[in-house]
């Protein structure tokens, strides 16, 4: 009976310890607040590590060796670590190691991923007149910089990928929107495509918008997820 209880405890402990991994996405220049989510009562030791470097300690404060020493603070009450003016190089694993009444608790690992802000996408359109069925074959190409995913809305359809091909009937008008996104933000570009017999052409409206995706994590150690 005891060994079953012990086994169960070990399993639960392992699940809790290994699922404490979270990913936080931020843009260059943002501020991140790293919080372990663990209870703060009775904490006798607590430190934050970045890779192998101890960057902040409950008693000592922000470490001299920290690559963020001039732009970080640790909170003595809840042991959160705040890092400002993030750069791409700050991406990496932060580990929170702590003890309650001199007994070590499971470490919490938070992976920080800092992204380049997304540039406004550029839409290129080329179309060919198809005489046989009086329509235009339209080639849509969306481009921007950085590591992003591409979504198109063509009429009422949603398509994934930077390049699309589409057929528009003569005198037909179709609105196309390219949305590029990473985990932090998204940007869109919009155009109206028109097909006519004389020459296939496009009408530019040049509208675009910016939407910031809210970066949130849930608060329970066994269930962390980020949007
Ligand atoms: C530290 O955290 C506590 C609790 O979250 C908060 O009330 C306090 O203002 C913070 N202190 C600083 C210096 O940010
Ligand atoms: C025009 O012809 C192409 C094939 O040549 C076909 O895929 C497309 O559906 C046709 N479009 C219309 C509007 O009939
Ligand atoms: C892109 O399109 C896919 C498939 O329709 C969808 O699941 C996803 O949420 C879209 N992403 C964005 C950022 O709109
Ligand atoms: C395309 O977008 C414009 C501007 O938003 C709108 O006035 C027009 O009705 C749209 N056309 C179609 C076919 O949806």
Automatic annotation (TrEMBL):
Protein name as catalogued: PKD domain-containing protein
Residues in PKD domain copies: 126-189
Subcellular location: Membrane
Organism from which the protein derives: Maylandia zebra
Source domain of life: Eukaryota
Record's keyword terms, sorted: Glycoprotein, Membrane, Signal
Lineage: Eukaryota, Metazoa, Chordata, Craniata, Vertebrata
Signal peptide: 1-17
InterPro entries assigned: CD2/SLAM_rcpt, Ig-like_dom_sf, Ig-like_fold, PKD_dom
